[in-house]
Amino acid sequence: MEIGKDLIAASSTPIVLAILAEGDSYGYAILTRVREVSGGRMEWTDGMLYPVLHRLERLGHVEARWEVAESGRRRKYYHLTSQGRAQLAEESRQWKVVDATLRGIWSELRLTLSPSPAASPLRTAGT
Amino acid sequence: MSELNRDAALEDQIAQWRAFIRRRQAIHAVDVAELEDHLREQVAGLVAGGLSSDEAFLVAVKRMGSMDSLSREFAREHSDRLWKQLVTAPSETGGAGPWIDTQALVAVGVAVAAAVAIKVPAFLGFPIDAHPAFYVRNLSLFVLPFLAGYFAWKRRLAPSTVRWLGLAFVVAAVLANVAPFAPTGKNPDPLQALHLPIALWLAVGIAYAGGRWSEVSGRMDFIRFTGELFIYYVLIALGGGVLTAFMALTFQSIGIKVEHFFQSWLLPCGAVGAVVIASWLVEAKQSVIENMAPVLTRLFTPLFALMLLAFLGTLLWSGRAVTIDRDLLIGFDLLLVVVLGLLLYSVSARDSSAPPGVFDGMQVALLISALIADVVALWCIGARIGEFGFTPNRVAALGENLILLVNLAWSTVLYLRFLTGRGPFARLEKWQTDYLPVYAGWAAMVVVVFPLVFRKG
Q: Cβ of B70 under 8 Å from any chain A Cβ?
């Protein structure tokens, strides 16, 4: 399933923050975790994760440090700050509201969620 | 294919990818390192899943996303990066960091050494206010050996080159201070004071080029460096002027005059130290800040061409006689120097494979009008030089005029050939860079031969 660009962009912050809440991590491992949790249904363009991480770093939600990985290469690890944790809680509240709203409308409409039309309401919800 | 070969091929591909992504301005070296770690991890994962390393590399690059959209994302997040920053080095990358720090430290050290050097004679009883002539004739020796030394260190020059450069500076010091070359009396000799730095600048150039002096590109880099250094130096001097003005102002408010400190410390030490600092900045910033000399060239080439054409037009129209004395001849020398500078920096910034354009036509118009103006000036002074007789100043000015005239005339020929498609642009570059030693040679001759020929009494 192809998820719209805007929705990917909107959801990337809470997803990354949540994964980092599980423990410090680095780019490749974060992407692997996203694939794992979504069962491969969320496909991010790998490179796009890094500008997101850098933005979170600039905002102070995460901290970065360079470490030498077991492979001998230098690797940039990200760590969730307490401010990032607060942001995650806030994002989670907002997403729950969006989720609850969509659920409410859809159950009233008794929509049959076939894969292709599902993409359009999702996209508008993301913006 | 053996394991080792496969690794080498993969390393090769990754190196190419790195070089490619490194060209994106918005993606810094430190980000490239992060992305490369990702790429390697991805490749390793895919190889473990059964792909060959070639296939794994292709898939990993594809998953990374298109380079354009990636660098757009980076640019959006780091918009400041598109404004070239005054940072000298990204501090986290490692690798290049310490070397750049060392360079900065050495540059500051060399600048301080030059500043101390210019104060040493004062401690030995030669203060600036009492012996201006000594300082004027030795000024270049307080700066250029340090600058050459800095580049000798930075470029790791061969010991034999260093010895030759050292010898050149020792000879220069002797020429500047020992009779019969040195001017006697209290008054500085402006000819020597002007020409010694020009001759020694070649020594700096050889140190700067660091073994690439014999190549056109090495000398061209030195030309670029000279122009940028000049611009940086002027900027630093302006800043220094503002600093001094505020210093005088603030100290005046508490009734202390800083003139003496300014004249005997701040100005001489700052002026020599700033040359080294400016040189270091030019080097450190050469990829960071747009080169200014070509930009100014673009701006002023048409304006100078218009000015000269207007002058020639008025000359013809009004039929006025050109009256010229020695000062005006020097003025025309300077005009040719400016035209040469405009030519040099547009040549240095021009892609030599680009086809002729409007700007090239403008350049040729500038060259031809400057040549005509100068020939008119020479014609007029030629008539009068017999009348006045030969003095060193007049001969020097005339010699320089001829040297510049030859250079510009041949440049015009080469440029016209290029415009008419009968010669490559590279010929012009080669001519200009080959000509550099001529200036230094003439300057050296003025310093060495003139005092012997024009000895007083």
A: yes
